[in-house]
Specification:
The complex is a heterodimer of chains A (565) and B (165).
Chain A lengths: L1 E3 H11 L4 E4 L6 H7 L5 E4 L3 H15 L3 E5 L3 H4 L2 H9 L4 E7 L15 H4 L6 E4 L3 H16 L5 E7 H5 L1 E3 L19 H13 L3 E5 L1 H5 L3 H11 L3 E3 L14 E4 L6 H9 L2 E5 L5 H4 L10 E6 L13 E4 L2 H13 L2 H10 L1 H13 L13 H11 L5 E4 L3 H9 L8 E2 L10 H11 L5 E6 H4 L6 H6 L5 E6 L4 H10 L15 H7 L3 E5 L5 H10 L4 E6 L24
Helix pairs in contact in A: 1-2, 1-7, 3-5, 3-19, 9-14, 11-14, 12-16, 17-18, 17-24
Chain B lengths: L1 E9 L4 H10 L5 E8 L5 E9 L2 H13 L3 E6 L5 E12 L5 H10 L3 E6 L2 E8 L1 H15 E6 L3 E4 L10
The chains are: A alpha/beta (565), B alpha+beta (165).
Bound molecules: thiamine diphosphate (TPP) and magnesium ion.
The site of thiamine diphosphate has 20 residues of chain A, from helix 18, helix 20 and helix 22.
Chain lengths: 565, 165
Amino acid sequence: MKKTGSQILLECLALEGVETVFGYPGGTVINIYDDLMDSPIHHILTRHEQAAVHAADAYSRVTGKVGVAIATSGPGATNTITGIATAYMDSIPMVIITGQVPTPLIGNDAFQEADMVGITRPITKHNYLVRDVKDLARIVKEAFYIARSGRPGPVLVDLPKDVQMATAVFEYPETVELRGYKPTTAANPRQLEKAVDMILQARKPVIYVGGGATLSDVSEDLKAFAEAIQAPLTTTLMGMASFPKQHPLSVGMLGMHGTFYANMAVTNADLLIALGARFDDRVTGKIATFAPHAKIIHVDVDPTSIKKNVRVDLPVVGVLPDVLPRLVEGLQSQPERLAEAVEATQGWRDQVEEWKQQHPMAYKKTKSTIKPQYVIEKLRELSDDDAIVTTEVGQHQMWTAQFFDFTQPRTFVTSGGLGTMGFGLPAALGAQAAFPKRQVIDVSGDGSFQMNSQELATLVQYRLPVKIVILNNNFLGMVRQWQQLFFDKRYSQTCLELPIDFIKLAEAYGAKGFQATKPEEVEDVIRQGFATPGPVIMEFKIAREENVLPMVPAGAGLNEMVLAS
Amino acid sequence: MKHTITVLVENEFGVLPRVSGLFSGRGFNIESLCVAPTLDPTISRMTIVTCGDDQILEQITKQLNKLVNVIKVIDFTDQPFVQREMAMIKISAEAETRAEILRIVDIFRAKVVDVTPRSYSVEVTGAPEKIDAMIELLRPLGVKELVRSGPIVLGRGAKAWKSAE
Ligand SMILES: Cc1ncc(C[n+]2csc(CCOP(=O)(O)OP(=O)(O)O)c2C)c(N)n1
Ligand SMILES: [Mg+2]
C-alpha cells in the first residue's frame, strides 16, 4: 500500500525510536500535523520555533538520543536558525524538519519561501531538500545516522508540501550507504602506543576534557583513566558534568572563568592530554602562552578539530569509548613503568594541591545583599543529586559552572559554543519532557529570561514542573562586567532600567513565583520553590555589580588571571 | 603557496556551494575551479587551485573530507602530476601584426579558431606557465579578450584515482 510523504516521515521517526518532538505548525507542514493526530509520536507545541529547537536540543543532551523539531517554511524555518546554530556549535545530534513551498514554486519567492538548505549550510552537519517522495525514507534514515555518528550535529530536512502529499511505497532502508561519509571509530593502535609512552614519560601531566566526553558517555572510563595515571583533570564547560569536581584529581574548569589551579596546572604541565575538546579561545586564552611547556596529545573523533587552534604533538583520531579503555589497557600492561610514573608525579600533584589551597574558588559573603554564588551553593545543597540544571548565558551561567558541583553526567545543559541567551528555559522544557519525574532547574538571568519567557505557557500547558531561578541584577551583567573592567565603567545599554515583576509574570501564565531580597530568605525561597508543584519562578535580587572571578581578560594568557576585583 | 587539490564529489545539485562555502566561510580564496562528471556519471571531479600555508591547506583538506558529499580529496602538492589549462584569446589583428601573431601561435602550438579582418581568436592548451608566457607575448599586440579554464591535473604514474577505494 502506498503512503503519503507526511505519513512516511512520521513512520520513519517512529522507527528511529522518536517518542517526543517539539514544533510549531503552519501552512507547509499542515499535512504532517494532520497525520500527527494518528501517530504515536508525542508533540509538544512550544510558543516559538527557536524554543522548539532548543527544547529538542536539550532533550538530546539529557537522553543521548537524537532530538527532533518541526517548523513551517519561511518565518517558521528562519526562527529555527539560532537553535540550529546552538546545537551545531555544541555538536548535538538533532534532526530538524522544515516545511517548504511546493517544488514547482521553489525559487519563485513564493509566499513563505526561504532557502533553508542555503541558509543552514554553514550551521548544519548536513542538510537535504527532498525533491521526490521516493527518496524520503532513505533521506530520513541518513539524516538520523549522520546526526548521531562521528562528531554529532544537527541535520536539516527541508520537505516541500507537494512531496508530503505525494505517495510512495514505504520501505525503510536497513542500512545507510554513504560513500563520502565514513567516520573513524577505532583509533590507530600505533598512535595509542605512542600516547601510552608519552604518558609514562610525563612528570607533569594534565587531562583536559571537553564536550566529547559528555556526548559519548565515558564518565566511568574517564575515571578509570585518570585514576590509573593519577593526573589532575580539568574540564571545559561542556565536559563539566562528566567528572565530579569532588574527585581528588579534579581541578575544575579551565579557561576564561576557570579556577586558578586549573589554569596554573595547564600553564605548567609537561603533557596535556586533550579528550574530546577543541581548544576554544575561551579555553586557551592567548595561544602563545597556552600550555607553553607541554607536549599535546589530542584525541578527537573529528580530524578537523585537531591542529586547528594549537600545535599537537600526537593526534589520535577516534572515539573516547574506544580510546580510553585501550589507553588504560596499554598502561596497565606495563605495571612497573606505570607505578614508577605515578610515583614520579607525586610532586606535581602536591604542587597542584598547593595551588588549590592558595586560591580556592571563593567569594565574599555579605549580610546585606544576596550573593549569586551563595544562591547556587544553596541550590546544589537543596536539590536532588540527579537534578538537571540548564542555564541561559551570562554571569549566572558562569556562577553555575563555578559553584554548582555536578555529580552526574548529562545533568548540566548549557550553550557553550554559541553562548545563546534564551536557551535555558526552552532547554529546561525539553529536559523535563524527557524526564518528567526529575528535578529540572533553569538558572537564568533577568536579561536572558526575557528572550524566551513565552515558554512559561508551554510549561504550564504540558504540566512540566521546571523550577526557574532568576538571578536578578537588573543588568546584562556579563556585558556590564566587561564594561566595568575594560571600558572605564561606561555602562552603555546594559542597565535593564525597567524592573519586571517576574512573580506577576509567572502568575499571568498560571505558574507560581517567589522572591528573595535578603540573604536569609534564600533558603526558604528555594525550599518553597521545590515544594510547590508545577512550574515556579524563584527570583533572587542579587548584588548588582558582582563580578565573575577569576577572569582571564580576552587575549591574555591563562597565567594572567584577575583574581579579585 | 599555491596548492592544487582534486576533489571527487557526488554529482548532485547543491554540492558546489558546499565546497565553495567551505573556502569563503573561512576567508580563503579559490583561484580557479574546474568541475565535470567522471567516467562514473554519479561522481564529479573538481580541480581547485588555492593559496595558503600548509596549515591552512591541512584544514581545508580535512574540512573537505568532512563534507558528506565529498568522496575523496587528493592534494597534489607533494606528488608528481601533469597539469593542463586551456585559454582562448581574442587579439586585434591589423595588417602589420597578423604575421607576428601567427608566428607566436605556431611557437606555442596554439590554434586559430576564428578569424575576422580585424581579429584572431586563438586556442592554446598547456601548463599555466606556458599560457602566461604566451599572453605576455601577445599583450603588446592588443589582447581584446581572454578566457582561461583554470588548470586540471592528473597524477603521474599508473595509479588512478577513481572513487572511494
Ligand atoms: C542572543 C544573545 N544576545 C546577546 C548576547 C551577549 N550577551 C552575553 S551575556 C549578556 C548579558 C546577559 O544578561 P542576563 O541574562 O541578565 O545575565 P547576567 O549576566 O546578568 O547574569 C549578553 C547581552 C548573547 N550571549 N546572546
Ligand atoms: Mg542580569
